[in-house]
Amino acid sequence: MYQILSKKTLAPAIHQYEIAAPKVAKKAKAGQFIILRVDETGERIPLTIADFDREKGTITIVFAEVGYSTKKLAKLNAGDAVADFVGPLGVASHVDKFGTVVMVAGGVGVAPIYPIAREMKKMGNHVVGIMGARNKDLIFWEDRMKEVTDELLVTTDDGSYVRKGFVTDVLREYIEKEGKPDLVMAIGPLPMMKAVADLTRGYEIKTMVSLNSIMVDGTGMCGACRVTVGGETRFVCVHGPEFDGHLVDFNEQLMRSRQYKTEEQHALNRGGCGCGGGGKCHG
Amino acid sequence: MASKIIPKKHPMPQQDPKVRAKNFDEVALGYDEETAVAEAGRCLNCKKPMCKEGCPVGVDIPEFIALVKERKFDEAARVIKRTNALPAVCGRVCPQENQCEKNCIVGKKHEPVAIGRLERFVGDYIVDKDEQPEVAEPTGYKVAVVGSGPAGLACAADLARLGHSVTIFEALHTPGGVLMYGIPEFRLPKRIVQKEIQNLKKMGVQIETNTIIGQIHSLDELFEEEGFDAAFLGTGAGTPYFMNIPGENLNGVYSANEFLTRSNLMKAYSFPEYDTPTKVGKRVAVLGGGNVAMDAARTALRFGAEEVYIVYRRSRAELPARLEEVEHAEEEGVKFLFLTNPVRYIGNEEGWLTALECIKMELGEPDASGRRKPVPVPGSEFALPVDVAVVAIGQGPNPLLTQNTPDLETNKRGNIVADEFGKTSKPGVFAGGDVVTGAATVIKAMGAGRLAAKSIHEYLMAKGPKKEQG
Question: Which parts of the sequence belong to the Dihydroprymidine dehydrogenase domain (chain B) (predicted)?
């Protein structure tokens, strides 16, 4: 069992857990992910690492309650434990001295992008952060992002905080004003990453994206996480999660991400608590 | 003279095909004591047992069968366990017809002795008994076993018996490897697998799940930081092959690994009691003709599919699956499309599979494998309407450990290179099972695990007694 040392609710239905997993923490690198299972009957949930503390032996994860399993995870509190926690999985971000790097985060994507931005800054890059959310309430980790960026530009879809517009609007304005950065990295919902990649393709700016596809084992065994990159099938779990955004077939990814919509609804309809009357919810 | 031999094996009691096609309970129900004793009576107890030579782990077959005949089931179990740590597993999934039973002298004239069924009987007899296995005095040596599938379990059992301290590292949350994620519940109940693994733990074997060697510890770190003296790599053939034909990433196209893992390891058949869903599919095509294909097809039936097809490019005679599995699949209602090869997947606008386009094949000249090579019949394309397709055309080695261990020699397919004793290019590192040979059988992997255990033991003993570290 892997204990949750602290829990913070960052925004409505977005939570941050610090989980004791010393061995994973010792090896974790920015850009990698973990898989956890809440309990014996749980799904294996892949989550990108939001932070790690080698000395404390902890991994920080941030997740939004989007489906049955993340809602189940959200019911846990500090002191509770998850049954399984495995990692670090996937290939770490390629961090180098590129020059100017723009890190674009959409929604919960700010969490996984934070440790990568930190590494990029450590390497001596000029790091520009762009973070966006639907509205003010959904903005979090602005302070953290400030610490690891040289410039931080914030936007909200509805204009309820700082400015109105999508992250792509901010990115376009930045490029028009400051010129082409050496690298753009985008993490967030698939449509947002697709929009960023479409924008930067026109400017011919190398763009990396981090995919969070459906997975079962996360170790290259099931192939559920297939993605077409430059015409070739790759597995997100062992070849990714980061890929060249200009080569990813986003339309295919969007369709693949909806595979279990019906089953998800079925699971959610089991009742408010999610335990389906099994009495497993303690509440 | 012995009385006249009963010409046929005692039949295996089974669930009725119509009933079992709708449930995940075990198909074969096992011999009762009377049947086992009677079947054991068919054994001639040959002086030079050929059956034993056909067994990859060298079980003392006539010896255990003689004990069954005398109703000394506990002793029979001890005899098997000397060489086979997982009798209840092997009795179910070994291809006995190509191994021990193929060599059986009774089988020259009649049906061979049902060695597999007797092994299963003994394995089941002992599986729930709380017996403390005998192990040698501790040697002080520590061995890491990477992977808890058949190769790793067999290797760990032998090493523990010899007194070494063994830790098995498993990437998934449950030990057992393919016995847990691959082979379906109706052919190998997971309770049996876990019981056999419990018995290994009683021998002092430690199992660390959720631990991916290559990610969490490199192989070198196992030696330098974790204090291991030798390592066995039994990481298996876990990477699914795809056909690489158009439309393969449509929704509804599964690898057999994914389809079976969802069902077996994640218990999707108990959805929503268990949280992992799987697409059921009304019409399912399974691509391939091996045991994995049969498992996938029969699983699809049990999920409630109305039509399940095996699509295989050669003819019935070339099916690589065990005859018993093919027969079981047919009895349950799986339909076989022989000499048929998939060409592309056809999908709808939402990205869902709607049909599998196939082409008819005919058999030409023998190819490199000695089998007649299937060649397409021009103009014979047709669309098979399906909503789920399961690709079961084989698996390659898992790359996670090897890609992080550059000094471990692999061949061009990615298999770890090991000699006949299981020795790899890295000192103190041994390997065996599917990661070396490519996808094969449970028992062959166990044989390789045992062989490596012997090599590891010799390697450690050559070092002399373990020196205490300061």
Answer: 20-129
What lies within 8 Å, CB to CB, of B4 at 6+ separation is none
Q: How many CB atoms neighbour CB B12 within 10 A?
A: 16
Question: In this structure, is residue A270 part of a structural domain?
Answer: no
Interchain proximity B209–A228, CB inside 8 Å: no
How far, in Å, CA of B250 to CA of B122, rounded? 46
Please indicate, yes or no, whether residues A148 and A240 belong to a single structural domain of this protein. Answer: yes
Closest CA to B143 of B131, B127, B160, B129: B160
CA atoms within 13 A on the CB side of A143: 1
CB–CB contacts below 8 A, A to B: 120
Instruction: Identify which of A69, A88, A221 has the shortest CB distance to residue B275.
Output: A69
Q: Give the C-alpha separation, A227 to A214, whole Å.
A: 10
B165, containing H or E segment: strand B165-169
Nearest by CB to A256, from B173, B181, B251: name it: B251
Asked whether residue A204 is assigned to any structural domain, the reply reads yes
Tens-binned pLDDT, residue by residue, of chain B (470 aa)? 456 789 999 999 999 999 999 999 999 999 999 999 999 999 999 999 999 999 988 999 999 999 999 999 999 999 999 888 889 999 998 889 889 999 999 999 999 999 999 999 999 999 888 777 888 999 999 999 999 999 999 999 999 999 999 999 999 999 999 999 999 999 999 999 999 999 899 999 999 999 999 999 999 999 999 999 999 999 999 899 999 999 999 999 999 999 999 999 888 888 888 888 887 789 999 999 999 999 999 999 999 999 999 999 999 999 999 998 999 999 999 999 999 999 999 999 999 999 999 999 999 888 888 888 899 999 999 999 999 999 999 999 988 889 889 999 999 999 999 999 999 999 999 999 999 998 888 889 999 999 999 999 999 999 988 876 54
User: Do the domain assignments include residue A269?
Assistant: no
A266:B272 CB<8 A? yes
The verdict on residue B136 lying in a domain is: no
In a domain, A61, yes or no: yes
Which of A211, A222, A261 would you mutate first to test chain B, the one with the most B CBs within 10 A?
A: A222
Helix (H) or strand (E) holding B450: helix B442-461
CB-CB under 8 Å, A278 with B273:
yes
Name the domain count of chain A: 2
Q: Does B123 lie in the same domain as B151? A: no
Task: Name the pLDDT band for A279 (thresholds 50, 70, 90).
Answer: very low
Q: Which domain holds residue B374?
A: 242-391
* Domain interval for residue A83: 2-89
CA distance B258 to chain A (A): 4
Cα A190 to Cα A158: distance, rounded to the nearest angstrom: 20
| Chain B, nearest residue to A71 by Cα | B275
A233 and chain B in contact, CB less than 8 A: yes
Residue A79, domain CATH:
2.40.30.10
Closest CA to A104 of A29, A11, A205: A205
**B156 and B197 part of one domain:** yes
Residue B248 and residue B319 share a domain: yes
Q: Are residues B273 and B379 in the same domain?
A: yes
Task: Render the burial of B330-341: b for 16+ CB within 10 Å, e for the rest.
Answer: eebbbebbbbbb
Interchain pair B240, A264: CB under 8 A? no
Are A6 and A144 within one domain?
A: no
> A219 and B351 in contact by Cβ < 8 A?
no
Could you report the per-residue pLDDT of B362-402, keeping only the tens digit for each?
998 888 888 888 999 999 999 999 999 999 999 999 888 89
Task: Say whether A86 and B266 touch across the interface (CB within 8 A).
Answer: no
> Which of A84, A88, A266 minimises the CB distance to B173?
A84
Q: Do A117 and A228 belong together in one domain? A: yes
Structurally, chain B folds into a number of domains equal to 3
* In a domain? residue B10: no
A256 and B351 within 8 Å at the Cβ level: the answer is yes
Residue A136's CATH number: 3.40.50.80
Task: Please check whether residue B235 touches A, CB under 8 A.
Answer: no
Binding site feature residues of A for [2Fe-2S] cluster: 222, 225, 237
Q: Is residue B7 in some structural domain?
A: no
- ipTM reported for the complex, 2 dp: 0.90
